[in-house]
Amino acid sequence: MIQFIDELIRKRYAAQFSSIQKEAETALDRLISRTGKGNEFLGWLDLPDQSPDNVILLEKTAKEIHDSGDLLISIGIGGSYLGAKAIIHALFGDQHRIRFIGHHLSPLELTQLLKELESRDFYINVISKSGTTTEPGIAFRILRELAEKKYGESAAKRIIVTTDANKGALRTLADKKGYRSFVIPDNVGGRFSLLTPVGLLPILAAGADINQIIRGAVSGFETALSQDKQNPALQYAVSRTVCYRNGKGIELLSSFEPRLHYFSEWWKQLFGESEGKDGKGIFPASVDLTTDLHSMGQWIQDGVRSVFETFLVVDHYQEDIKIPYDESDLDTLNYLSGRSLSYVNQKAFEGTRAAHEDGGVPTAVFHLDYLDEEHLSKLCVIFEVSVAISGYMLGVNPFDQPGVEAYKRNMFKLLGKPGI
Q: Are 392 and 36 contacting, i.e. CB atoms less than 8 angstroms apart?
């Protein structure tokens, strides 16, 4: 179960909630009827593809990678890697066999990976609709060269391409070299591609359960596309819109679980790239608590009051640990002996929320029963639907990203790319 609790924001801005609620319901209607801006990119509403052939092929390929290789190298940038990394890190922490590359241009990171691969068996999954994006393109060229040197003709069996069905550089290369391939649907943008093979293949190769993922996604869409006034996607869109219209231009996604760090990174792309255009949009930021309370906590508590906060809280942990009793009690922590760490973490959240509210920061909370495949995939769907509603209420197209081309044009010119 996932709950969204925003009673404090509702109390703070009670007079505005009714009209904004109606706006949100209208925006949801446009999404469901597929009549809003960017409706040609609403294929994510039909995900995940549950046809037996596609599910079996994904599972079979993931099992081969898991059983026959030490590592899977996932090459992609933006939506081509963030969703998978978010789910994998949430489920397994650092204890997984997936390496992500191609989302930066650091020679240090790539060199370190190449050294690691000298003594490891590996598969490559390169993810790009066009195959010409600079960062993953460079990484794939280098790693493909390594694979061909290490495995010879059998390298083709270890390279898997996730790309356009019919066109683009990667499709041409896959057909020429005989690489196995999966398809990125034409009507699904990168930041909404988690439930396509873009996200599912690496997630399954890490050891996740496809049935739980599908169950969570199906439940997520049933919940998020309903006209129930308690629909968490709808209510989240209403709450963040009312905060924005009252001068809160920054949203903090705050979690007391370190495994949700990359989930926050995925969320930042989803909301930032969907809303930040035409001089509009909430700036999405995130903090890891309690860690960042010892660094960013002062600003959150007493800084410019331009921020509101959404907490992600895990209510139940599959594993826990109790704090021991110490005879000397030099650290004065015996008052906590016998308490579970999750209990202390919960009280840290409750105390932090109260302090931030007292400091003038409007807050709301998403509660997840457990940190597992079902709840994570459901939460992803809720966020995807909610950002579509928010974008329509903002008056922008939530499914394009014209601004990201500006840095590319400048970089290509400086690099001397032909034709620029």
A: yes
**Contact, 253 vs 271, CB < 8 A?**
no
Instruction: Output the pLDDT for position 405.
Output: 77
Sheet containing strand 98-101, edge to edge, reads: 98-101, 71-75, 122-127, 159-163, 180-183
Residues in the chain: 420
Residues annotated as catalytic are 273, 294, 408
Measure the CA–CA gap between 148 and 153, rounded to whole angstroms: 7
What the block records as the tokens of 96 is 């997984």
419 domain-assigned: no
Q: What is the pLDDT of residue 325?
A: 98
> What whole-number distance in Å separates Cα of residue 71 and Cα of residue 120?
7
Which residues of the chain are modeled with pLDDT < 50?
Answer: none
CA nearest neighbour of 368 among 255, 205, 274, 266: 255
In this prediction, residue 269 carries a pLDDT of 98
∠ Cα 378 382 386 (to 5°): 170
> What span, in angstroms and rounded, lies between the C-alpha atoms of 135 and 201?
21
283 and 376 part of one domain: yes
Pairing status of strand 159-163 against strand 2-5? unpaired
Q: How far apart are CA 180 and CA 265, in angstroms?
A: 29
Three-state DSSP state, 229: coil
Q: Is 320 helix (H, G, I), strand (E, B) or coil?
A: coil
SS3 at position 18: helix
Q: Which pLDDT value is given to residue 156?
A: 97
Looking at residue 305, which CATH number applies to its domain? 3.40.50.10490
Q: What is the domain range of residue 7?
A: 2-35+213-402
Pair type for strands 122-127 and 159-163: parallel
Q: What is the pLDDT of residue 99?
A: 97
The pTM (predicted TM-score) of the whole model is 0.97
Confirm if 149 and 114 have CB atoms less than 8 A apart: no
Three-state SS annotation for 125-190: EEECCCCCCHHHHHHHHHHHHHHHHHHHHHHHHHEEEEECCCCCHHHHHHHHHCCEEEECCCCCCH
Q: How far lies 26's CA from each of 203, 205, 227, 399, in Å?
A: 35, 40, 10, 18
Helix/strand number for the chain, H first, E second:
15, 10
